[in-house]
Amino acid sequence: MIPWFLSTNSAGMILTRLRFLILPTIHMWKTQIPSGRSLMISSGIWGIMAFEYLNLSVANKVGWVEYNRLPFNGFNWEMLGQEDVRVVVLSSTLDNYFSAATDLTIFDGIRPKKMREWVKICHGHLMQNAHNPLLAAIHGMAVGGGLELTSHCDFCFAAEDAKIGQLEIAINFIPPVGTTQTLACLIGRPKAIKFLYDSKILSAIKALDIGLVDKLHPAEELRPYVQSYAESLASNPTKVLAAIRRCITLGGGMPFEKSLDYEIEQAAALTDTPDFIEGVKTFLEKN
Question: Which phi and psi angles does 63 have, rounded to 5°?
């Protein structure tokens, strides 16, 4: 049975958004979910790839979405959500590859109209509105579309032997999954434009130096560390994590006065949560 969970929670939303960064087709695709109901996907030219390319697991409220598409994880995502997930980690099951490139078969014969549709769908399902913390755990080769997803994550951890690059210039193209914008925010305009102009594979140390990744670990220690860190995040109230992420990720792209108004609304909304009321009460009782 296909392990499909339909939910309105934030983890489900994150993975639903990831699901639409997928292979273009020209038909509708139908699958069964455990309840026996059918889910029909139809959005013009977009179809769904098989679950066989994914390993999905949950441990202590941390959901791991691990891409497993031999031989080298050509980027072509299909995801699912689960209600007990508070933190999402993007990773890979292959020893030598996080993601080797976009699956270029989807671009064979594509022309401006279809490319606009593809990029618009990618942009419409980015993870900026996700409520859960998003982490990336990179090992091996990470280039192309898979690497683009990590630029939307909150933290990016990498193995010391990881190799990272955006090589789209080699096919006279750009990284279109919002990366031209996120890179400038992450590492600054000069470094971002040089990174894309040069189109080189960087060592993990160099990627850390320019800010593409946040922390390095020996390959064998990467997953245990990320799991431990994710569990520490998952122990926090979900609504405050969501508020922090919204204020920084969404508010950071607003004009300053509007971002302050947005912060006001997030702060006000938290006062209605049981976690806030109990937290203040407990603090006052102890002090």
Answer: -100, 125
Give the pLDDT band (50/70/90) at residue 69. Answer: low
Q: Is the pTM of this model over 0.85?
A: no
Q: Look up residue 129 and give its two tokens.
A: 């509105």
To which residue do tokens 């990627």 refer? 207
Q: What fold is seen in the domain 238-286?
A: Lyase 2-enoyl-coa Hydratase; Chain  A, domain 2 (1.10.12)
How high does pLDDT run on average in the chain? 77
Phi-psi region of 105 (alpha: psi -120 to 50; beta: other; left: phi over 0): alpha
Q: Which CATH superfamily does the domain covering 10-234 fall into?
A: 2-enoyl-CoA Hydratase; Chain A, domain 1 (3.90.226.10)
Percentage above 90 pLDDT, the chain: 44
Residue/partner pairs of 168-173 with CB below 8 Å, 24 or more apart: 168/144, 168/196, 168/199, 169/196, 169/197, 169/199, 170/199, 171/104, 171/107, 173/107
How far apart (Å, rounded) are the C-alpha atoms in residues 225 and 222? 5
Identify which of 153, 40, 46, 43 has the alpha carbon closest to the alpha carbon of residue 98.
153
Helix (H) or strand (E) holding 31: strand 29-32
